[in-house]
Amino acid sequence: MTRSQTRILAVASGGGHWVQLLRLRPAFEQHQVTYMTTSAAYARDVGTGLVTVTDANLKEKSRLARMFLQVFLHIVRLRPNVVISTGAAPGFAAILFGRLVGARTIWIDSIANSEKLSVSGRFARHFANLWLTQWPHLARPEGPEYWGGVL
User: Which InterPro entries match (predicted)?
Assistant: First the structure.
């Protein structure tokens, strides 16, 4: 890693969250990026720069606790300068722990959440340095912000 490279941790759970995160790849080209997700099969998309965590949601308390611990350990080991997430639970955990270790944090709420903000996004807003929505009608003065475009 050169002095000008930023260590980025890009986090998303599977499916649409992952697809949206991959659409941001051109923005990461000059930096050292590690991807975090819930499926090792996604290594085909990013190569060796992938770490995985347990897939969990609010209904699976023990799996959720395991996932939070895994995310915390990866954050401590990787020490990212920036954490960016398109959701869901692993992204929130990474935003939370990333902020605690001094990383700049960015949450981009999923395009699928067109009528209201995601649960994870509503939690992440308290820890994200930048909180974005992909729908202009969901933007509010107190956040999230809408910067245009759709992933």
Answer: Oligosacch_biosynth_Alg14 (IPR013969)
